[in-house]
Design brief:
This protein is of the alpha+beta class. The chain contains 13 helices and 15 strands. The N and C termini lie far apart (53 Å).
């Protein structure tokens, strides 16, 4: 069987001494690089049923897993997220995906509680509360949104591109609607801002962005990362969202908080930006983003996709695009692959973007002062005639109008930060 290279290792990080132990059939490896380090678990070469049994010997399983007594290794492959082994057992074909840097331990919850249209793992293996193998029964799909979208962008076919993006957004929204009843907790503003601070310090970034996030941006069973390669299209043109292994950035800087649904959308919006830059498409990026966002809003829970959640003065979609850009730069640093686009362009626009929002706060202050003067006047000097209500009513009306104007100054989510 062909030798599979461990291309999931970041190319700019060197192997150091192992930090901890490992289960049978795995090697624990510490990788170190420029101001970063990570520990990964790599399986021994898997060429036979004996090798497979050695790998799973000390692991705990969940869900549906193949019978090891009737198992046969068909093929192996690898990508930047880990090793994949195609196996057959009891007449069924399976795909085993190894997670070198583990997961957030919520893969089974996503699989059990998500919409039937989601292509999800049916089982997996854990070690010390960490998922290190996920398994899925192989299904055949015609293509995926990534390949279809690249073709449409290259050809400049706006109608097809918008249709793909709208349906892709809908497939993400179906997932969010299906998991809403399982878990929803208050927004975690303190940890979200601390996460941005840590990423900025790790990358020695010259940007600082903190936001008073909307209360409606509640935490949920987020996907962690989702891209157009994860949106599969069947022969009947149905769209299926695939729950995939975590990205490299989740190993380099493990999340210690939960996220809102709009963060998943930001992953797709960022991926759209990558494909748009790669193809150098002549289409209008604003129209493309709008289609993706509207598709998601069509099927996502209304409370998770309201205008308050998109409100840029309280983070909105923009701050999560910024976080995704920092993660892209983190991965490119670990691989020494050069400045990633559009991540570096987004980060370069953060300071003028913040300056614009800061200038708008003058209007917000005027709104607050006007309403305060109007209400305090009524409280301190209760009106005894119609003429006594004119000034406080004017102040309150002025406050309402200036506040409405202030909200309109918030950039629309379909407008890229780089175009503002």
């Amino acid at each position: 069987m062909a030798v599979v290279e461990n291309i999931w290792r970041p190319s700019a990080m060197q192997v150091s001494k192992t930090k901890g132990d490992s289960p049978s059939g795995f090697n624990s490896i510490r990788l170190v690089g420029n101001r970063m380090s990570m520990d990964i678990l790599e399986p021994i070469p898997i060429n036979s049923i004996e090798d497979w049994n050695s790998v799973i010997f000390e692991l705990d399983f969940w869900g549906d897993v193949p019978d090891p007594n009737s198992l046969e290794i068909i093929s192996k492959s690898s990508n930047e997220r880990g090793l994949s082994v195609k196996i057959t057992s009891s007449g069924m074909e399976w795909l085993a995906e190894f997670l070198p840097w583990g997961s957030d331990n919520r893969i089974d919850s996503r699989a059990v509680n998500s919409h039937p249209s989601v292509d999800k793992p049916c089982g997996g293996y854990r070690w010390k509360e960490q998922d290190i193998i996920i398994l899925r029964k192989i299904k055949n799909y015609r293509t995926n949104s990534n390949d279809e979208l690249i073709q449409a962008l290259n050809e400049g076919n706006k109608e097809i591109a918008i249709d793909i993006l709208h349906n892709s957004g809908k497939s993400l929204g179906f997932y969010h609607s299906s998991v809403k009843s399982f878990r929803e907790t208050p927004m975690d503003q303190k940890r979200w801002n601390k996460r941005l601070l840590d990423l900025e310090e790790k990358l020695s970034a010259n940007t600082i962005w903190r936001a008073p996030f909307s209360r409606k941006a509640t935490c949920m069973l987020s996907l962690g990362d989702v891209r157009f390669t994860d949106i599969l299209i069947s022969g009947s043109s149905e769209y299926f969202l695939r729950i995939s292994p975590p990205r490299l950035a989740d190993g380099l800087y493990k999340p210690v908080c939960e996220f809102p649904a709009i963060r998943d959308l930001a992953c797709l919006v960022q991926d759209l930006g990558r494909l748009f830059h790669k193809t150098q498409s002549s289409l209008d990026i604003t129209d493309l983003r709008k289609s993706l966002i509207e598709g998601w809003i069509d099927t996502a829970p209304p409370s998770w996709s309201s205008s308050d959640v998109f409100y840029a003065h309280r983070g909105g979609l923009a701050i999560w695009e910024y976080e995704q850009s920092l993660l892209d730069v983190l991965e490119s640093t670990a691989n020494q692959s050069g400045p990633p686009s559009p991540a570096v362009q987004i980060i370069s626009k953060v300071i003028p973007f913040q300056k614009s929002m800061y200038n708008s706060r003058t209007i917000a202050a005027l709104s607050f002062i006007s309403v305060f003067l109007g209400v305090s006047t009524v409280i301190n000097n209760p009106p005894t005639s119609f003429s006594d209500t004119i000034i406080p009513s004017f102040c309150i009306l002025l406050g309402y109008l200036t506040h409405s104007f202030y909200r309109k100054l918030s950039p629309p989510p379909e407008k890229p930060i780089t175009d503002l």
